[in-house]
Amino acid sequence: MTTQSKREKAQAKQQAALEKLEQGILDITTEADWRQYLDFHSKFYNYSASNTMLIYGQCPEAGHVAGYKAWQKLGRQVRKGEKGIVILAPCRKKVEDNKTGDEVWRIFGFKTATVFDVSQTDGDDLEETDIKAQTTEAELYRNLKAFGEAQGFKVLEQAYPSSYGVCIYKPSGIEIRVDPLLSVDLRASILAHELGHALMHNADEYREHSLTSQKELEAESVAYCITQYFGVAKDQKRSFAYITCWNRESDQALEQFKASMSVISKTVKTIIEGIESTASNESEALALA
Ligand SMILES: [Zn+2]
């Protein structure tokens, strides 16, 4: 095959993946659709938003995906005839940083890559990895509070008029208040929501947000994924009202929605990794004590 046609083939594959991704997003038209996507996202939180959507669109039951060779290393073989799941992989190159002169990795576009779900493979049993961290509501609340404080936010159990939780943007920093009279599971869920706002939105964006706004969708989605991931999902009557009033007609709207998916995904990852690294430091400290 000539280089030209190889490149054309690669571009066509990439275009098809991007179209699949956009179709997947446009197919989310109800709050239930979005909730289902977020359930999936909670399992694949360490993938980018685009790849989570691509995997979800092609294999909604996926539990654990890896490339062909990665499965072989895990002692499993992809079955003959299985159709791979196409995702996007960044093309990275080492370049010199203009300011520091250090060598750093930069991303130059994307190429497609193929992965397979565990259900498409045979072989050794996978080592049981504790994908879903089980924790109690009280632990989650404590961990979220410690995480927020480590980010420099003040987290107080203090009532605020007509609100279960609030972010107050002060010149000295962000103060989050959670109503102390609420049950601990609600407090955890509300704190996750407010932390989402504090990490994703500035004071103006926060002030303007309403129940049907995109900013509210972002905070609700982060809180949903966090409580789902930690297995504390009693209160999942969340409002994703923006989904039903989102105007899908314009390209700009699609780009804005993709931006939301990306910021939700990054924030969920930051919170989960922040909590898990503190938790593992604590258990190491206990082990050494
Ligand atoms: Zn909110």
Q: Could you explain how this protein is built, in words?
A:
The chain is an alpha+beta fold. The protein folds into 2 domains: 3-123, no CATH class; 137-288, no CATH class. The chain has helices at 3-26, 31-43, 49-58, 68-73, 137-150, 184-200, 203-208, 214-229, 241-245, 251-288; strands at residues 65-66, 76-78, 85-96, 103-117, 121-123, 154-157, 165-170, 173-178. The strands form 3 sheets. A 3-stranded antiparallel β-sheet has the order 1-4-3. It binds zinc ion. Zinc ion (ZN) binds next to helix 6 and helix 8.
Q: What is the structural class?
A: alpha+beta
Domain count: the total is 2
Rg, Å, rounded: 21 Å
Low-confidence runs (pLDDT<50, min 5 residues)? none
Note the total helix count: 10
Ligands, deduplicated = zinc ion
What do the pLDDT scores average to? 88
Order of helices and strands: HHHEHEEEEHEEEHHHHH
Strand order of the largest sheet: 1-4-3
- Number of strand segments: 8
Helix content: 40-55%
Largest sheet: 3 strands, antiparallel
C-alpha end-to-end distance: 63 Å
**Amount of beta strand:** 15-25%
Question: What shape does the CA trace take?
Answer: globular
Give a short synopsis of this structure.
The chain contains ten helices and eight strands. It is of the alpha+beta class and 289 residues long.
